[in-house]
């Protein structure tokens, strides 16, 4: 707070008047008037050349700042909190504040980082060794119990390695066996945040390297569902394997992140419908990180996993809130897409996140032609409707 006040006092240049205009949607003030009302002001029976100005303006708004790509960059802090000097609001204030920042760097890199790295190494090694040993036991309640003990213990060690401070709310709604836990996705550590409080069966693609070693060890002790790259493209095969898992009420709940990619802790984007076609009970979970202590978002387009983990482990701490929400089931007459949207809306409301209809795949892919065609259809329907009225 003190640093924020100093920053505000240090700004001597008057800000342009345009920046004082309230713009709740970003750096520009958008006109959210629907296309039907916007064009209806101008005329209204047939196509007119002036109609293109509406689409041009919307295009310019998207170029300046669209609501999708800004969700894939780190959440901007309100004030500088001694974590970094890259905040756009930061500029040199005083020698005293600079000295404090330098001391913070020394503490985080020279003291906290070695301790955290040691804890992480202990946690990962214990996970591999423990699950491998448990995996040699015959299937029984004892094996399941020991597997849960190993997973919980190692996950809690890894959370300590991140200096994690996690607040779990409404624990009476925790996912139960035979169910499906779905949560918004901000970081690869989301899974550790949740397994710190309970055991889950993970779903994901088979990897190589250290991650592959961990996957092969853990699957011996716990019924995780790992897919080969060729299998993941076969939706029917994936659905079949997940349904078989959910049908067994003795197995751990499946943990799925339906967005399919990491979003920057401000929004929830489109949930893929596959998780909601399986059947069974859905247990929604909302995760919200506090960016003042450390930026948990993984911008995979900018940082590889090693660089990301280094940034995480050199933050002061990872602080977040986790809300377990009441279980939800698919209503009669509701398709998978509608069910997914209903669950997404509930998670967004609980976590105080912005709900967006866009596919997180736009992080690396172009907009599908179907989205463009939908706008064309809406425009043509509007003309036909207005023409019939005339």
Helix content: 40-55%
The CATH top-level class label of the domain at 95-362 = Alpha Beta
Quote the CATH topology of the domain at 95-362. Glycerol-3-phosphate (1)-acyltransferase
How is the largest sheet built, in terms of strand order? 1-8-7-2-5-3-4
N- and C-termini, Cα separation: 61 Å
CATH architecture of the domain at 95-362: 3-Layer(aba) Sandwich
The SSE string, one letter per element, is HHHHHEEHEHEHHEEEHEHEH
Task: Please provide a brief summary of the model.
The protein is α/β, with parallel strands linked by helices and 390 residues long. It has helices spanning 2-10, 35-40, 52-65, 95-135, 141-161, 190-195, 209-221, 229-232, 235-247, 305-313, 336-351, 369-389, and strands at residues 164-169, 180-183, 201-205, 225-227, 254-256, 267-268, 282-289, 318-324, 354-355.
Supply the key terms.
390 residues; alpha/beta; Glycerol-3-phosphate (1)-acyltransferase; 7-stranded mixed beta sheet; two-stranded parallel ribbon; 9 strands; globular
Describe the protein's architecture and organization.
- The chain is α/β, with parallel strands linked by helices and 390 residues long.
- It has a domain at 95-362: Glycerol-3-phosphate (1)-acyltransferase.
- The protein is 44% helix and 10% strand.
- It contains 12 helices and 9 strands.
- It has helices at 2-10, 35-40, 52-65, 95-135, 141-161, 190-195, 209-221, 229-232, 235-247, 305-313, 336-351, 369-389; strands at 164-169, 180-183, 201-205, 225-227, 254-256, 267-268, 282-289, 318-324, 354-355.
- The strands form 2 sheets. Strands 1-8-7-2-5-3-4 form a 7-stranded mixed sheet.
- Strand 3 (201-205), helix 7 (209-221) and strand 4 (225-227) form a beta-alpha-beta unit.
- The N and C termini lie far apart (61 Å).
- Mean pLDDT is 78; it is low at 11-28 and 85-89.
- Belongs to the 1-acyl-sn-glycerol-3-phosphate acyltransferase family.
- It is found in: Endoplasmic reticulum membrane.
């Amino acid at each position: 707070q003190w640093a924020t006040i100093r920053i505000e006092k240090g700004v001597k240049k008057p800000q342009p008047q345009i920046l004082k205009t309230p713009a709740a949607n970003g750096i520009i003030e958008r006109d959210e008037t629907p296309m039907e009302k916007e064009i209806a002001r101008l005329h209204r029976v047939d196509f007119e050349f002036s109609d293109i100005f509406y689409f041009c303006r919307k295009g310019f708004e998207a170029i300046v700042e669209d609501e999708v790509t800004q969700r894939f960059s780190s959440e901007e802090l309100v004030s500088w909190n001694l974590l970094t000097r890259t905040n756009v609001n930061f500029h040199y204030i005083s020698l005293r504040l600079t000295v404090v920042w330098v001391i913070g760097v020394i503490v985080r890199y020279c003291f906290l980082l070695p301790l955290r790295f040691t804890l992480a190494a202990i946690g990962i090694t214990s996970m591999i060794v423990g699950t491998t040993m448990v995996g040699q036991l015959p299937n029984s309640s004892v094996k399941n119990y020991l597997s849960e003990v190993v997973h919980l213990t190692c996950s809690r060690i890894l959370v300590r390695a991140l200096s994690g401070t996690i607040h779990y709310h409404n624990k009476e709604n925790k996912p139960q066996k035979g169910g499906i836990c779905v949560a918004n996705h901000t970081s690869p550590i989301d899974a550790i945040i949740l397994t710190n409080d309970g055991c889950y069966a993970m779903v994901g693609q088979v990897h190589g390297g250290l991650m592959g070693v961990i996957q092969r060890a853990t699957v011996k002790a716990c019924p995780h569902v790992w897919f080969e790259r060729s299998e993941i493209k076969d939706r029917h095969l994936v659905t079949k394997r997940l349904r078989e898992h959910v049908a067994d009420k003795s197995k751990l709940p499946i943990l799925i992140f339906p967005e399919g990619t990491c979003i920057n802790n401000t929004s929830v984007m489109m949930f893929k419908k596959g998780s909601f076609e399986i059947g069974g009970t859905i247990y929604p979970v909302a995760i919200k990180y506090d960016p003042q202590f450390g930026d948990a978002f993984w911008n995979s387009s900018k940082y590889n996993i090693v660089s990301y983990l280094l940034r995480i482990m050199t933050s002061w701490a990872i602080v977040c809130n986790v809300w377990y929400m009441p279980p939800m089931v698919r209503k009669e007459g509701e398709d998978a897409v509608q069910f997914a949207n209903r669950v997404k809306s509930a998670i967004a409301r609980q976590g105080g996140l912005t709900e967006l209809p866009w596919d997180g795949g736009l992080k690396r892919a172009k907009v599908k032609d179907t989205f463009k065609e939908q706008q064309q259809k809406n425009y043509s329907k509007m003309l036909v409707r207005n023409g019939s009225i005339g």
